[in-house]
Amino acid sequence: MASKRFVGTIAILAFVLAAVAMATKFAVGDDQGWTINFDYEAWVKDKIFHVGDELVFNYTAGWHNVFKVNGTAFTNCTIPPTNEALSTGNEVITLAAHGRK
User: Fold this and answer.
1) In the chain, N or C: fewer CB atoms in 10 Å?
2) Measured distance CA(3)–CA(17) in Å, rounded
3) 27: buried, middle or exposed (CB in 10 Å: 19+, 13-18, 0-12)?
4) What's the whole-number average pLDDT of the chain?
5) Is the pLDDT of residue 5 over 80?
6) Is 53 helix (H, G, I), strand (E, B) or coil?
């Protein structure tokens, strides 16, 4: 019985490690970073994102910020409270679920 649990645990661990190893890190805006006057729709056009992938927002702290929103809030241009802004200049957001963000 214990050996079945051990094999099951190893199988789950192997699956999780494989998913983490396959995660991709995307620098939003590539070399230009998170800035204004950049075509992010063109940037995202040829990319496929998966749960576990990381979006890296690089920018000059104090000049820009990042808010985590869902697709509806983005479409409606609903800005969260200011205290929810990410503003270090190097934000890494791991995609935890499917859907528009």
Assistant:
1) N
2) 21
3) middle
4) 83
5) no
6) coil
Q: Across the beta sheet with 54-58, what order do the strands follow?
A: 25-27, 54-58, 90-94
Contact 67, 84 (CB under 8 A): yes
Main-chain dihedrals φ then ψ at residue 74, nearest 5 degrees: -65, -50
Q: Which residue reads 């270090």 in tokens?
A: 88
What is the per-residue pLDDT across 44-88, written as a single tens digit (0 to 9) for each? Answer: 999 999 999 999 999 999 999 999 888 899 899 999 999 999 999
Domains assigned to the chain? 24-94 (2.60.40.420)
**Which two tokens mark 23?**
């995660």
Kind of pairing between the strands at 25-27 and 54-58: parallel
